[in-house]
Amino acid sequence: MPYRHILKVNNWRLRGKFTIMIKQIPLSLLALVMVLLFQNCKKGSDDVAATATPVLQATINSIVWTPDTLSANITYNAATKTKVFNFSGTYNQRRLTCAVTLSSATSTNDFTLNSYTIDASGNPLITYSVQQKDSAGNYVFVPIVTAGNGDGLVTITAVDSASGLISGTFSFTTKKLNYDTDGNITTITNTVVSGGAFTKMPYTFISQ
Questions:
Q1: Are 103 and 77 in contact (CB under 8 A)?
Q2: How far apart are CA 18 and CA 16, in angstroms?
Q3: What is the phi/psi pair of residue 188, to 5°?
Q4: What average pLDDT does range 99-125 have in this prediction?
């Protein structure tokens, strides 16, 4: 076969390969762009999820506590003219409950924005409990500590009565003395709840 003819055949083959490569480049680029966009979108959604503010959260003895079960309500009692805001959160067999009582209250679906320091009567009432098995074999929540006079603070920062949402903060530090059968102190249990916050927590209004 003449040399020039061989060159033409080889050039044709090269042109064919070059044409195929040109056609494939846009598809490769498109696939790469789609992968990058998907990864960026996924990262963005993960970032949003990671920064979402929990409805109820606190740090208990240096461990972040975010309950997976919670409830909240504001209850007005017409006979005593009291209004009580209380919430309860449970996670990993640990439960934190809080109740703030207002006297001479009105029957409106709201709560006074204020800071409430635990007083001598135990208002607000803040209790930290753990789940244990009782003598009958039933699992019940047993209080470990209840915050005492001056040990804690609950602050109500916002109430959206139309939507039934309430926000605020709470914290307390308490010490429990543990005794043996002879009445001697054996250990001291310190419980520190810091950075407690409820953010736009849904509540139910009850009037009775």
A1: no
A2: 5
A3: -125, 125
A4: 97
